[in-house]
Amino acid sequence: MRHNIWRVITFIPMWKRLLYVLIAFGVATLSGALLLPAVWYFEESSRFMESLIIVLSYFREGVIVMFYSLMVIVCLVLIYQYERKRYLQFHIERMTSLVEELHANRDLVEPSVPPELEQLMATVRAISDSAAKAEQEVLQADRLKHELVTNVAHDLRSPLTSITGYLDLIHSDRYRDEVELRHYIQVIHENATHLKGLINDIFDYTFLQNDRIALQTSEVRLDELLNQLIMQSTLRLSEVGMEARFSSSAERPIVEGDALKLVRVFENILENAIRYGRDGTYIDMFIDDTDEAVLINMTNYGEEAIPSRDIPYVFERFFRVEQSRAHYTGGSGLGLAIAKSIIDLHEGEIHVTSQPRETTFTIILPKVSSNAVHEKSWLV
């Protein structure tokens, strides 16, 4: 409180302070002069007032000092309230000007404001920061939308160009024999399948990003799910000369999740391992657990490591680490982004570490508590 009064006082120019003091004493003197006739009147008309005045006359100097002091203080308090209003108005106008400057220059350092306005200034600054952030998000959304359209057009054009090219050859009978015709048809089929996969990935990623996919959750045993995935992928692995190996040290690898969506996660990581790790022969899957979570490691042994500069962007859409792996291209660039989106929906985590001849994707999913499992089995 004392600091606030002192700020208002120092805000008033020195000449004005002296003027206010003179005005206060002048008002006190004028008030005394105006009250004297009333005192005389009551002295003549009232015995009580006459007696009181006689008693007070013994303390005449003290009464006069007290009266003057009281009147001066009242005047100064009124003047202080007036100047405090001007003081706050000055800083509000200053803040208004500051907000306009902040709008024009985001790096402006805000000046100090009185304690009464600090909260208001903080709120104004927060609103300004939110507006700037929203503006940046809109610009980023426009940029990402442009990139999405560009990347989708680029990814869809290659298989479409191949399909239309071979169809033109077939349509114009430009093939030597039935063997070459069958080759053309096989190439068309492969590109059409690839095109279908691209379109499916784009739709899935869009739905996941817009929260338009609802999870059909149930208790999922991840060891059984991975074993089933390995069995289903045996033919695909044998075609590229690879083998999946599974091991587990988990006591109870049970999570609450959408089994089909989790299968999609592991399929995408497995396909990534096949595409970039086929020269390593093996893909190892390992499960461990704690009281709170289940940990899944999927490791491939490809010769090329993911560059450390690319690690933070591996799970971004349309990102491919292909500068040194160009002979294994062909993915949509959305597989790992879809995997991360699904893991995020399950409130889990996904990370990747990479070095020459070993790249490991680590997935951590929250575990179903043993008490919950026991209660469900008892109810059954």
Structure notes:
The chain is 64% helix and 12% strand. The chain is of the alpha+beta class and 380 residues long. Residues 323-329 and 372-380 have low confidence and may be disordered. The protein has 11 helices and 7 strands. Helix 2 (14-45) crosses helix 3.
Topology:
Layout: H1 2-11, H2 14-45, H3 47-57, H4 60-104, H5 115-171, H6 178-209, E1 218-221, H7 222-232, H8 234-239, E2 243-248, E3 254-257, H9 259-277, E4 282-289, E5 293-300, H10 335-345, E6 349-355, E7 358-366, H11 370-379
Parallel strand pairs: 2-4
Antiparallel strand pairs: 1-3, 4-5, 5-7, 6-7
Q: How far apart, in Å, are the first and last alpha carbons?
A: 68 Å
**Helix coverage percent of residues?**
55-70%
Number of strands: 7
Question: Structural class, please?
Answer: alpha+beta
Strand content: 5-15%
The topology string of helices and strands comes to HHHHHHEHHEEHEEHEEH
Radius of gyration: 41 Å
Task: Give average pLDDT, whole number.
Answer: 78
Compact overview of the structure:
This protein has 380 residues and is an alpha+beta fold. It has eleven helices and seven strands.
Which terms would index this structure?
alpha+beta; disordered C terminus; 380 residues
